[in-house]
Amino acid sequence: MAETATTPATAITLARRRPAAWHWTGRHATGWRLAAAGGALALAATLAAAPAAAQSFLDNLFGGPRTTGSISPASAPAAPLEAAPQAPTPGGARPWSGESGSSGHPLMTADAIRAAAADFPACIQRMWPEAARRGVSRASFDRHTAGLTPELRLMDLMDAQPEFTKAFWDYLDLLVSEARIKRGREILAQHAATFAAVEQAYGVDRHIVAAIWGVESNFGTQIGDRPVVRSVATLACVGRRQAYFRDEFLAALEILHRGDVVPDHLKGSWAGAFGPTQFMPTSFKRYAVDFDGDGRRDVVDSMADMIASTANNLKKDGWEPGRTWGYEVVVPQGFDYLMADSSRWLTLAEWSRLGLARPNGKGFPRPTDKAYLLVPAGARGPAFLMLKNFRVIMKYNPAEAYAMAIGHLADRMRGDGPIVQAWPRHERVLSSAERYELQSHLVRRGFDIGGEPTGRIGPRSRTAIKRYQHTVGLIPDGFASAGLLDRLRTR
Length: 491
Description:
The protein is an alpha+beta fold. Helices cover about 40% and strands about 5% of the residues.
């Protein structure tokens, strides 16, 4: 993986802005932790706790929203009431099913949803004092909330529980396709002057910014068409994530009051993310910048503002200018895979002394840089040394597969070749039920997975898998394979 060109960041004062199983931990549309089943990434969508993912490219790719997580206690649902009338949804989308959500949360029962819908106008008005404290005028508040009705279909989307099982390599195949690489190069050429200016200002590799654009919305072709205000207003007043979405609703009103985005253009996912790089309203407040100097921070219609805001996000998250995100490496025979741990950072020189080398024979440009070893498909797949910038990408979306897709797409757009080593494509990815069973077997054998079985294979589960593998004489690579599950079942 190539080094990026060194581009010193220029100190400038800018207006501030912005804010798996899939599990929300991020600030953007795709802020869903991808639960890695050892190395075969299980893209399991078990919706349960946090903001819903955007109707961005990733939603269309995998068929729907992605969430999961803990459920906070709530009071008992109100008595049954008729739901408020629903205005037509964009594109002829289906209306609410009228059924209780599958999460089991008391605010997701059909009766609770109907009661909240009936209270929707009053709920909106109860948020006026806080909007006023944020500088939104009464006239602006009334203008943007007039005639607002809840879109109850969002309750079905929030609590849908499809499961998508994709291997790490399938995920990369889909997101780092030849068509996307080609389009990304065209985008970089088309906006070359803007990318150059942004790279100079923020020190963030233009290819990484373009890759985020490509992954989040397929270069702006799939950003969602729901009115953001209606979506976040619905979720602020109905369902199990009201506290979170009240802040998003109020932030959306601030955006409209300031005039940053044209009201008719503030459209996006059913969760309220908008623009080619899918900002949530609170994320917009924190990171958006007016790079074109027109007095508005417009990440929807201004390519300059969108590109710069995305770079500003990465800069504030700690991007190191002139450095890459990681290297593919070949692991020597007999290597101790217990070293493959995201908490174990060694210098590249130290990894070299342990026998790790780049497959193309090149050395490491900065041997003193620190990295950790990632083996997403276990000992039979490629290995990667991940640097600090990989972690910065994961702050945009804390998922290893997402961050690798961003980094690899960026490298391919730059002209680098594909991953050299073969993926174990014969491996079958475990279902959610199988991952749950695997964790249960580990717990019964006394291995600590960090809590009760959930069906999500996180770092603690992978550590438990390594320890089990070590005790039975297997390579301790932490890979949750079907073969490993079979062994746990029979021994």
